[in-house]
Amino acid sequence: MSEQTLTITDNRTGQTVELPIEHDTIPAIGLRQLKVQADDFGMMVYDPGYTNTASCKSRVTFVDGDRGILRYRGYPIEQLAEKSTFLEVAHLLLFGELPEASKLTDWNARVMAQTEIDQGLKALLKTFRADAHPMGILVSTVGAMSALYPDSKQVHDGQSRLQQAVRLLGQLPTAVAFAYRNQLGLPSTDPDGALGYSDNFLHMMGLSGDGEVDPVLARAMDVLFILHADHEQNCSTSALRNIASSDADPFCAIAGAIGALYGPLHGGANEAVLRMLAEIGSTKNIPAFLDKVKNREVRLMGFGHRVYKNYDPRAQIVKKIAYEVFEVTDTNPLIDIAVELEGTALEDDYFVSRRLYPNVDFYSGIIYQAMGFPVEIFPVLFALGRAPGWLAQWMELMSDAEQRIARPRQIYLGEAERPYLSMDERG
Ligand code: ACO
Q1: Pick from 242, 244, 236: which is nearest to 260 by CA?
Q2: How far is the centre of ligand 1, averaged over its atoms, from the C-alpha of 254 (Å)?
Q3: Is residue 10 flagged as an active site residue?
Q4: pLDDT tens readout for residues 129-163
Q5: 303 within ligand 1 shell (Cβ under 6 A)
Q6: Ligand 1, closest atom to CA 304?
Q7: Residue 22's beta-bridge partner residues?
Q8: Of the listed 266, 336, 348, 400, which one is catalytic?
Q9: Which of 57, 135, 147, 297 could form a cystine bridge with 262, CB 3.0-4.6 A?
Q10: How far is residue 254's CA from residue 260's CA, in Å, rounded to a whole number?
Q11: Residue 133 falls in the annotated catalytic set
Q12: Is pLDDT above 90 for 249?
């Protein structure tokens, strides 16, 4: 018997199956042989929330949640955040390698040449009400790109895939800034392809007034985008892979991913953290708030992670950036509440025993607010950063011969067959 196998005995029948082990996993389909009756469907795995199911083999991002490690294509997040630009990281995620100088120049130019958005898209963005949530607008924006670019349906053509990726990376910040300024009743600012990616975004948002964007803020935005750029098979990326597995075009798939990101348990957490800190209002209210968390009345937003059972390495970097940003902007008084809240929670057995630490969203909103972004737009900033990761994961999926349409099974617990009831027999 090979050592690289798992032998399972079904104690209902005494039947034994031997399954191959590859990368510490067994093929779930192998369990199907285990049956009590010959016409049974066979054994399945029950895994709500996919806590222990690998849905793909990936070469993009590595996370070791126990040791607090995050790497894109092998490079530690700390080094990328310190030394790279966001577009450089986007290149790394999409193509697998950091670009040489001339390639990076070409790549930057290629993306920045795509920053204009279509007049039809502008007309659509003008239809949203002033109180529309920016994530709803973003879902619609990316969905509309599917209609604007019918060639995006050529999902098995590598050149077409790259074309859509560049369009999305180039146009997304422009559409976000256009929608934001339209909601405020302000004229839009045209993209400036000569600027850096984040510099141009802040310039279009108009957050620096009439002057040039402060380089500290442009760099902070770039690093925040880098930190959000990918996180392997999280909720939104899994949603994207599910949608794209039917050969849907990337804009529809990414619109779906944005929908998944919107929820407060995922990318909407940065918005929820800010609201939570504002509600706490003062450090003296922290103990009472943590009591409510421990009584399960509320969650401590920005804490906890499915994978990280140690400090999220991104949160450490974000916390550091906050103080750099406050050198340029006014300080955000919520940082004092956040720091004390974190310190108190990390000494409390409730959080220690459950291994709950700050995640990437705990401190990011405090920075965004200091930079002048309204709270509602925080999840959109997450989406802008995540775009290259979604695209890289989509490209990987489309060239993975082992992938098939995503179609989980269920355990059916409903009614057995029963005769139809006519209207006068019901009730
Ligand atoms: N506050 C209080 N208790 C928490 C929190 C929290 N933020 N997170 C987890 N717990 C508790 C749970 O109540 C549970 O306790 P129990 O075992 O006594 O019932 C235990 O810790 C395990 O939590 P689960 O909910 O089973 O963990 P799961 O992996 O399913 O959820 C999640 C992870 C959704 C991130 C969760 O920690 C959470 O809701 N956090 C707050 C929202 C948040 O910050 N989301 C952003 C995540 S990062 C990102 O998406 C970019």
Answers
A1: 236
A2: 25
A3: no
A4: 999 999 999 999 999 999 999 999 999 999 999 99
A5: yes
A6: 37
A7: 25
A8: 266
A9: 135
A10: 10
A11: no
A12: yes
Any ligand 1 atom below 6 A from CB of 322: no
**For residue 25, what is the DSSP state?**
B
Yes or no: say if 4 and 37 are a contact pair by the CB < 8 Å rule: no
Encoded amino acid at 127, one letter = T
Position 311 scores a pLDDT of 87
Q: Band of the pLDDT at 199, cuts 50, 70, 90?
A: very high
How many angstroms separate the alpha carbon of residue 306 from the centre of ligand 1? 7
Cα–Cα dist 19/7, whole Å: 6
DSSP string, 357-391: -B-THHHHHHHHHHHT--GGGHHHHHHHHHHHHHH
For the stretch 17-36, pLDDT in tens is 999 999 999 999 999 999 99
211's torsion region: left (phi>0), alpha (psi -120 to 50) or beta? beta
The CB of 309 under 6 Å from ligand 1? The reply is no
CA distances from 227 to 218, 222, 312, 384 (A): 14, 9, 11, 11
Give the predicted TM-score (pTM) of the model: 0.95
Q: Cβ(60)–Cβ(389) under 8 Å? A: yes
Instruction: Tell me the per-residue pLDDT of 67-78, one tens digit each, with 9 for 90 and over.
Output: 999 999 999 999
The Cα–Cα gap between 226 and 88 comes to 9
Catalytic residue among 199, 214, 230, 361: 361
* Distance from C-alpha of 197 to C-alpha of 139, rounded to nearest angstrom: 21
Mean pLDDT calculated for residue range 105-128: 97
Give the whole-angstrom CA distance, residue 131 versus residue 137.
Answer: 11
Q: Is 210 left (phi over 0), alpha (psi -120 to 50) or beta?
A: alpha
Share above pLDDT 90 across residues of the chain, in percent, rounded to a whole number: 96
Whether 385 is in the pocket of ligand 1, judged by its Cβ within 6 Å, is no
361 is catalytic: yes
Residue 72 pairs in a beta bridge with 61, 75
Would you tell me the crossing angle of helices 269-280 and 361-371 to the nearest 10 degrees?
80
Ligand 1 mean position, distance from CA 302 (Å): 9
Question: Which residue has its alpha carbon closest to ligand 1 atom 45?
Answer: 265
Q: Please say whether the beta carbons of 223 and 317 come within 8 A.
A: yes
Dist. CA 426–CA 179, nearest whole Å: 51
